[in-house]
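subagent[fold] <- orchestrator: predict structure for attached chain, return tokens only, no commentary.
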Amino acid sequence: MVEMRDIFVPDLDDADTGIQGRISNMMTLLSLHDPEVRCHLDDCGIDASFYSIRWLTTLLSREFLLPDTIRLWDSMFASTHKDNFLRYVCVTMVMITRDELLKSDFSTCLRLLQSYPPTNVDQLLEASRALWIYESQ
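subagent[fold] -> orchestrator:
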């Protein structure tokens, strides 16, 4: 869990491993793989910190039911790339809600991202792994 420690250290907020650095890396990844959604969120005035701070600091435990959270955590703790795991899962979560986000305004987008809809966690993990593999090639 040392990989996750820097999220909670205020002096490291702006470092790559701190909370702002991780949000920035998330947005860079989203810009690369779904620039349309990234631009739409920017146009709506939605800053990534509005939803991603909660996602990152709670390790997604507030977004999913307990069995799904345990499944996510099990995959994260088993991952050899724990620091990247959460980034790819979070970006995949945004990409999964793509269609809904693109047709929504500020309040609807924010509500969707802050109160994430029920999702098949196995499909989420598979999609985030596929994104990571694609990115790694």
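orchestrator: received. Logging for downstream: The longest helix spans residues 121-136. The two ends are 27 Å apart (CA to CA).
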